[in-house]
Amino acid sequence: MNLQLINLIGASAIAISDSIQNAAEETTRNTASFPAALVIIDRYPTITVDLLGQYLQLSQSGAARLVERLVDQNLVERHQGNDRRFVHLRLTLAGKVMVEEIQQAKVEAVSNLLKPLTTQEQQLLLSLLSKMAGQYSSTEVVEEYICRFCDIDECPLLVCKQKIETWQEKG
């Protein structure tokens, strides 16, 4: 294996992740899991607090505190589903606007990193990253954590779109 490639991929992954996280935090004026929670709730409009916590790798109490902050800022509301044992989350209009702003900030942050590449090089990179993406994870929870800032509508991976469609069909 090429150790120079491994080092550059590792450094690039961290730089890209930091750029996305920083852009999301600046947009929401909140740190840590706050912006990612909004993106995930947008993706799964009937998600429970427990599942959100799993996807963000938070404890149950950490997820509950995070949801409380989101509700206090009028970005998320709680509602009862058919099964009264579970409280479901959905974005308010302000929350939906915030998700759009987070996604735009992500686009700008990553676009800045891609500037040195030609259009052809960007297409090659897309092809290579798509090929590698199948190796990232083997569990749904880890996949959701990795893809916490993804815009699924723009994802080139069919498996991601199928997963969202299945979730939406379950309602």
From TrEMBL:
PROSITE patterns from the UniProt entry: HTH_MARR_2
Domain named HTH marR-type: residues: 2-134
Top-level division of the source organism's lineage: Bacteria
Record GO terms (molecular function): DNA binding; DNA-binding transcription factor activity
Alphabetized UniProt keyword annotations: DNA-binding, Transcription, Transcription regulation
Protein name: MarR family transcriptional regulator
Organism of origin: Plectonema cf. radiosum LEGE 06105
